[in-house]
User: What shape does this take?
Amino acid sequence: MPRPTDAYRGLMQSSRLRVLAALMDTPGIGLAELSLRMGLHVNTLRDHLRVLEGEGLARSEVEHTGRRGRPRLRFSPVLPSEPNEIEERRVQEAIRHGDLMRAVLPATRSALPEAATHQLDALFHHLDDVGLQPDIDEKAMTVDLSPCRFHTLLTDDQTVVCRVHEELMKSVLARAGGPVEIERVIPFTSAHSCHVRLSLREESASDAGS
Assistant: This one.
């Protein structure tokens, strides 16, 4: 199938992943501070930030200081609790596709609660859009990722790349809503593959009554 026009093409640059990691570390950071931290020219950063905002991964807001002059922008990652039309569309498309597949192919039906199934739909499509090849085992609650499309970026930025993708997976699961959580990400179980352990959060009394 052709890749969606809003697939995560912006994550294929190591420097852009580093920018997103910096936003995760310091939400609300300004362009000048980000430039000093990253060692990148502000024009280069503007391009990276424009792409990240366009893909629903980052957002900007005007800093109101009450002073004269051009207001500065502050940049942050988009949290799963915040409105995000792009991510919401991705999640809903993944859920619709999963429901259709299960209706057409009964063998693909899930034994998990519906909300958990929909979370795995969203996670699968997120990982597929990123360019990985996810193999999700619902019974074992694991995800195997192979081959790693980002292997060529990992020479200097392995920790950054893996951490950013782990946070994005957590965000997708949270935005889809349900009991599935990431328990642990184990990078490089082989030279080009990673392993993700999932868990089902126990339903609390407040969840059950809501």
